Amino acid sequence: MIRDINVDVAQATAKRVTGAGGIALAVEFDLADARSVRALFDTTVDQLGGVDGLYNVAADASANVLRRRKGRPRTATRTLSSASTDPTQKEGIEMNVRVENRFDGKVAMVTGGVSGIGAAITERLLVEGAVVVAVDIDTDAVASFTKQHDSTRLQPRVLDVSDADATRTVIEEVVTEHGRLDLVVPNAGIAAPGNAADVTLDGWKAVLDVDLNGVFHTIRYALPHLAATHGSVVSTASISGLGGDYNLAAYNAAKGAVINLTRSVAVDFGKQGVRVNAIAPGPVLTPGLRQWLDARTDVRDLYEDHIPLGRTAEPSEIASVVAFLASNDASYITGVTLAVDGGLTAWTGQPHVMG
Ligand SMILES: NC(=O)c1ccc[n+]([C@@H]2O[C@H](COP(=O)([O-])OP(=O)(O)OC[C@H]3O[C@@H](n4cnc5c(N)ncnc54)[C@H](O)[C@@H]3O)[C@@H](O)[C@H]2O)c1
């Protein structure tokens, strides 16, 4: 029985890989036999020139799907505006962005949606066909983002998400205007420096008001509408919600709370067909961070040293994960917080002292 299920999963995976322009190799062998596993890899690399991915679906006799690129990777069906200027491509790291039309006819709201990570999320959802209500407290940033993006599907608005009534009003107006709401991305966030003893009370309250209460308001007032469309929530938490940082007590508290709020809402609203997830980015090269790292190359070196993938993320790499979690590709995922951190939280933090 288990074997049958695994074969089904292998076949579905192979179909997906070939559909995306790759070559899928479905094989069955004894995984415990290291020699035959090695021989299989060697033969595959000899015959096809490489192996780009491995999907292992069984614990005993197993079907493994190996994928290799055939010539150049298939190009995106649409191009992301930021992809061509992505510095990671210049460094030879292949992004292989494949953009689909997963949000045609859908209405999304992104908070903090006109700068940094939020702007990348707004752009990704627009490229994939959504109507995007990008809200932000910064009037000038809203105006300049609107000027840069010539799309009738972009609906920018000024909103302070820490204001519960204002957030409810905007959500109600969006539903009145567009007839539906399929996705909210509570992403607006701020930080204040300080540990628990010296963070200012104003700083503490401001961070909790935006990073936690703002997320709560957005989710709370969107929920009835998301239940009507079987929609979803993808909140921007942070790796700072998964562990503690030096001198970021308020931010750590707020982001940790967002991660557990995600679980709580997922549990309460799963039966109504609403999926609720979050992402936990590591350091992302938003214009603010890029400026800081340009001035502090010592800090840039530290990041590159500590992050297993050896670099900070591009905003587009965060946006693509939000789009995945919001899409039907993630139709059986709810209540999770997905780290998008280049492996940073996979590391215990112990110094590299073993040999
Ligand atoms: N940049 C990173 O390295 C990083 C890492 C992990 C998590 N995050 C999180 O990602 C999210 C986006 O951060 P970013 O780096 O793009 O920052 P950013 O400052 O570029 O963007 C945040 C946006 O939120 C808006 N905003 C602030 N307060 C608001 C309010 N009360 N109502 C509505 N909008 C408000 C700001 O005007 C700004 O446009 C935040 O939640 C942040 O905590 C960022």
TrEMBL record:
Cross-referenced InterPro entries: NAD(P)-bd_dom_sf, Sc_DH/Rdtase_CS, SDR_fam
In the record, what lineage is assigned to the organism producing the protein? Bacteria, Bacillati, Actinomycetota, Actinomycetes, Kitasatosporales
Query: What name is this protein filed under?
Result: SDR family oxidoreductase
**Where are stretches of biased composition, namely Low complexity?**
76-85
Gene source species: Streptomyces phaeochromogenes
Family annotation (PANTHER family)? NAD(P)-BINDING PROTEIN, SHORT-CHAIN DEHYDROGENASES/REDUCTASES FAMILY MEMBER
List the residue ranges of the region (Disordered). Answer: 68-90
The record's similarity note reads:
Belongs to the short-chain dehydrogenases/reductases (SDR) family.
Q: What CDD domains does the record point to?
A: SDR_c (cd05233)
